[in-house]
Amino acid sequence: MVSAGRRGVFSGVVQNMHLHWKHRELVKIIIKERDPVQLKQTARLLENESGGILVAVEKTSKGFAIIVYRGKNYARPSQLRPPNLLTKRLALKRHVEMQRRGVLCSMLI
Question: Among the four residues 6, 72, 90, 91, which has the most C-beta atoms within 10 Å?
Answer without folding.
Answer: 91
